[in-house]
Amino acid sequence: MTDWTDPDTFAQALEHVETKEKGNCFEDFEEGDVIEHDPGLTLTQFGNEQWMGQTLNHDPAYWRSDAAEARGFEEPPVHPDYLTAATLGITVEDLSEKGGYFLGRTDVRFPGTPVYTGTELHVESEVVNTATSSSRPEYGIVSWRTRGKDAETGEVLCSYERTNMIPRRDPVATDGSGAAAAEEEDDKPDLPEVFITPDGGYFEDFVAALEEADSENAAVAYRHERGRTQDDVTVAQLPLSTLNTAKQHHNVDVMSDSPSGDIVTYGDVTRSTALGHARSDEQTWREVGFDDESFHTFVAVGDTVYAFTRVLSAEDDASSEQAGTVTFEHIAFNQDDEPVYSGTRTAEIQKRSN
Ligand SMILES: CC(C)(COP(=O)(O)OP(=O)(O)OC[C@H]1O[C@@H](n2cnc3c(N)ncnc32)[C@H](O)[C@@H]1OP(=O)(O)O)[C@@H](O)C(=O)NCCC(=O)NCCSC(=O)C[C@](C)(O)C(=O)O
Questions:
Q1: pLDDT at res. 184
Q2: What is the predicted ipTM?
Q3: pLDDT for residue 183 is more than 60
Q4: Which residue in 220, 219, 247 sits closest to 99, CA to CA?
Q5: Is residue 295 included in any domain, yes or no?
Q6: pTM (2 d.p.)
Q7: DSSP calls for 29-77
Q8: Which domain holds residue 273?
Q9: Distance from the CA of 110 to the center of ligand 1, in angstroms?
């Protein structure tokens, strides 16, 4: 009788059987397709606190009831970064489990916030664009508009547009124009002479720093001291806790043969960690939204995520008189000073007068 567990026999069996595949290839997506994602998630206090704790998002309003009340919340709410990561995590099985790199995201908004723990999330996505990659024949580029809804009321809690590289079933010929165009780019740096750091983290501090920068060849730009070295918890555990099944984060065997050679940090962990560093140096009131987010290179176990902030504008038009609106560009970078993430963020920042 054949012993299927004999190593030689088993190796032959593995060679002959088909693999029941997971996920979709580029060819499976057509513009206009709407995908209802089957996985759902209850946004629990444990999930929320685990995400915030590990990414250094320690704003007391998300941890303590008295601090939450002082900020106009009924109780400590679900953090917008966890809500965003959970909304995206649920979509991975259908959209990007095949192994595409998360390139970027824009128009991240929270129409239904604040959201409280116990809310069940139901997520759907629409294919908004499919494109050939001119530099990588084995991939296409797909963008989806995703909406995370309260499963009970249907209210949209988080929405965004995300873009990934997605493996093709059949590679196509490319003209290489992307790489050629990149080489032609004039990349001479054009940095200002003076870099100004706000005196504090209140709205008035950002206004004052921008006024100072306006009078000379200067920018309001500074780095944050904290760093967070990536470990098994941030790389594998946090994405799995959002039901993100991308092999990039938990299958060392497959990833050893990929460009990174190793499992990599979920893009939402990288950006949330950098944002946590930035928020620790400001008095956040509410998160408004995120745009033009890009992931420039991989972050892996052992890499350390730091943050750099540029203040772009400050307007006295927030939803509450106790705050003003500030727009930032945040850049996450690693121990070799390489940018790994960048994006703009609009947030309401508390006024000192309160
Ligand atoms: C992917 C790598 C290797 C390509 O690096 P490269 O130097 O070869 O390429 P590039 O020139 O920067 O870009 C390649 C192509 O992508 C396009 N592109 C680039 N950015 C955008 C964007 N925002 N929107 C639209 N298109 C974009 C770009 O225009 C270009 O098009 P082309 O082939 O036609 O010339 C490199 O950029 C890299 O390593 N990036 C980091 C990726 C990463 O680590 N992402 C986060 C972790 S993966 C993840 O979280 C997974 C997730 C969430 O679980 C899940 O989706 O399932």
A1: 53
A2: 0.94
A3: no
A4: 247
A5: yes
A6: 0.93
A7: --TT-EEE----EE--HHHHHHHHHHTT---GGGT-HHHHHHTT-SS--
A8: 22-171+191-350
A9: 25
Beta-carbon count within 10 A of 207 CB:
20
Residue 127 lies in a domain: yes
Residue 179 lies in a domain: no
pLDDT of 308 = 95
Residue 6 covered by a domain = no
Q: Which of 87, 141, 183, 338 to mutate to test the pocket of ligand 1 (most atoms within 8 A of CB)?
A: 141
Q: What is the pLDDT of residue 211?
A: 95
Decide: helix, strand or coil at residue 204.
helix
DSSP tag of 166: E
pLDDT at residue 174 is higher than 90: no
Residue 347 CA, ligand 1 centroid: distance in Å: 26
Which neighbouring-strand residues pair with 102? 164
* Res 138 pLDDT > 90: yes
- Which among 219, 223, 201, 200 is positioned nearest to 210, based on CA atoms? 219
Backbone angles phi, psi at 161, to 5 degrees: -120, 125
Indicate which CATH number applies to the domain containing 324.
3.10.129.10
Nearest alpha carbon to residue 296 among 99, 102, 139, 96:
102
- Cβ(103) to ligand 1 under 6 A? yes
User: 163 CA to middle of ligand 1, Å?
Assistant: 8
Q: Residue 84: CB within 6 Å of ligand 1? A: no
Please compute the mean of the pLDDT values over residues 158-180 and round it to a whole number.
81
How do residues 163-172 score in pLDDT, each as one tens digit? Answer: 999 999 988 8
Mean pLDDT of 98-105: 92
CA angle 55, 78, 68 (to 5 degrees): 100
Mean pLDDT computed over 341-354: 93
- Site to substitute for ligand 1 among 90, 244, 295, most atoms within 8 A of C-beta: 295
Total count of domains within the chain: 1
Atom of ligand 1 nearest to the CA of 97: 57
